[in-house]
Amino acid sequence: MNIFPAVDILGGKCVQLVQGKRESATAYGDPFACATRWLDLGATALHVVNLDGAFGTASKNAGLIKDLIKKTGVEIELGGGIRSVDDARNWLETGVDRVIISTLATRDPGCIRTLSREFGKERVMPGVDAKGGQIAVHGWQETAGDYIGWAKRFEELGAGSLLYTNVDVEGLQQGIRIDPVKQLIDAVTIPVVVAGGVSARSDVAALKAAGAAGAVLGSALYSGKIKLKDALEECR
């Protein structure tokens, strides 16, 4: 199982949100400095989110993110504001390993097949953001049906992996809810990376035991509630 420290970018700064709410942002400084910190501590991959893109300004932070990709040279999965096949294509051509497509995947599921055929399925990662068992879209403000049903459909269309985020616990630093994770992993055959609530070494252990391919560390990592060293050791 791999560990993905989150580098969420809003207004040119690395931030962490609670429940995806912009007004809850806590800033942690320069994104490249944050990324370098986690890589120096042993991380080998990053989970990068263009929050300005998610809030409607897709082009914002593009230059900064491209520099991050080039300077770190590590495995990067990228999401936030990818609202069209062209958006996804542009990011894939900059060198990110995977694009995370969420609302776009539910609005235009065929985009998964298009991108998988063009770039390879391993580079296409639909986001399964679940809220009360329903897939959450449009900045987690709306729901659009059973998250398991959507996950199966994404796999059938050619997704190479899935990013599962439990919106109900995201950013709260109160631990994961393992049952919906297990249900999703059991329902599909492709790798599932899990975000939302990972706040202790025991959460990482539970995800590993459930068969998760990776875990995203966000708010709890930045606040110091979970240590990257402990998470990496648990994965080994």
Layout of SSEs?
Blueprint: E1 2-10, E2 13-18, E3 21-27, H1 31-40, E4 45-50, H2 51-54, H3 62-72, E5 75-79, H4 85-94, E6 98-101, H5 103-107, H6 110-119, E7 124-131, E8 134-137, E9 142-146, H7 147-156, E10 162-166, H8 178-187, E11 192-195, H9 201-210, E12 214-217, H10 219-223, H11 228-235
Parallel strand pairs: 1-4, 1-12, 4-5, 5-6, 6-7, 7-10, 10-11, 11-12
Antiparallel strand pairs: 1-2, 2-3, 7-8, 8-9
Helix pairs in contact: 4-6, 8-9, 9-11
Keywords: Amino-acid biosynthesis, Cytoplasm, Histidine biosynthesis, Isomerase
InterPro entries: Aldolase_TIM (IPR013785), His_biosynth (IPR006062), HisA/PriA (IPR023016), HisA_bact_arch (IPR006063), Isoase_HisA-like (IPR044524), RibuloseP-bd_barrel (IPR011060)
Organism: Methanoregula formicica (strain DSM 22288 / NBRC 105244 / SMSP)
Description:
It is built from eleven helices and twelve strands. It is of the alpha/beta class. The chain has a single domain, classed as Alpha-Beta Barrel (TIM Barrel), CATH 3.20.20.70. Helix 4 (85-94) runs parallel beside helix 6 (110-119) and helix 8 (178-187) runs parallel beside helix 9. The model has no long low-confidence stretch (mean pLDDT 93). One of its GO terms (molecular function) is 1-(5-phosphoribosyl)-5-[(5-phosphoribosylamino)methylideneamino]imidazole-4-carboxamide isomerase activity. The active site is at 8 (proton acceptor), 129 (proton donor). It catalyses: 1-(5-phospho-beta-D-ribosyl)-5-[(5-phospho-beta-D-ribosylamino)methylideneamino]imidazole-4-carboxamide = 5-[(5-phospho-1-deoxy-D-ribulos-1-ylimino)methylamino]-1-(5-phospho-beta-D-ribosyl)imidazole-4-carboxamide. It is found in: Cytoplasm.
